[in-house]
Write a structure and sequence with these properties.
This protein is of the alpha/beta class and 243 residues long. The protein contains ten helices and ten strands.
Length: 243
């Protein structure tokens, strides 16, 4: 990886819920073409960071820069138009809409000019989606809903994809399919991915670089391989975990 200007720069970010501080001064860089992952225990602040980058909640201190532009106080809908898409924790697809309509909602963030072409790509990436296009979102399995959530984000043609806990509660085979799809998108389309994930083993294997978050602070960073091999990381997140 060349040391280019980061696509996304997070500096000294502090985020609060009321008087409770969730992020205590976070620094993160994501360069174009990378898969960067953040691991940490439940409640460490990983999802809060994802939501803060996407503008809801907004950081109370620090700065978030995307393509050299300060987006710290920008509302989410404007951030989306800049080329950042989010697949949030818990999937959150529109349950009463069909899969096809969910994908249309994703594409509408930018424009619908490439809809047919992008839909075709999605159906190759996730063949299961092709079979379910006319089915309502709420009737899908958890794994299928997760695929739709990621596909909906991709329909906006993002430069940066924020993925929050894509493997949560899913069977190992589905997890493998989702992580393979992320790898493929990064390799063939050059998509930049920032991934928050409790499944540390899969996430670090996939990532070029990773960060460890503990109680709202970054405690460690390195390449995916370095963190996989780190004894502290192994003891805290990999021993007895899902491999």
């Amino acid at each position: 990886m060349t040391e280019a200007q980061p696509l996304l720069t997070v500096r000294g970010v502090k985020t609060y819920y009321g008087k409770i501080i969730a992020l205590k001064g976070v620094d993160v860089d994501v360069r174009a073409g990378e898969i960067v992952t953040m691991i940490g225990a439940n409640g460490a602040g990983k999802s809060t960071l994802m939501m803060t980058i996407f503008g809801n909640p907004q950081a109370r201190e620090g700065s978030i820069t995307y393509e050299g532009r300060d987006i710290t106080k920008m509302p989410s809908h404007l951030i989306a138009r800049l080329g950042i898409a989010q697949s949030p924790e818990g999937r959150r697809i529109f349950p009463r809409m069909t899969v096809f309509e969910n994908l249309q909602m994703g594409a509408a963030v930018r424009d619908l000019a490439h809809f047919d072409e992008d839909l075709e790509k999605i159906c190759v990436l996730f063949p299961r989606i092709k079979e379910r296009l006319q089915q309502r979102g709420g009737t899908l399995s958890g794994g299928e809903q997760q695929m739709v959530a990621i596909a909906r984000a991709l329909m906006a043609r993002p430069k940066l994809l924020l993925l929050d806990e894509p493997s949560l509660g899913l069977a190992p085979l589905i997890v493998k399919q989702i992580f393979e799809a992320i790898r493929e998108l990064n390799k063939t389309e050059g998509l930049t991915v920032f991934l928050v994930e409790q499944n540390a083993f899969h996430a670090l294997k996939l990532a070029h670089r990773g960060y460890v978050m503990v109680n709202g602070l970054i405690t460690m960073s390195g390449t995916g391989q370095e963190l996989l091999a780190n004894p502290q990381v192994r003891a805290a997140y990999l021993e007895g975990g899902r491999h």
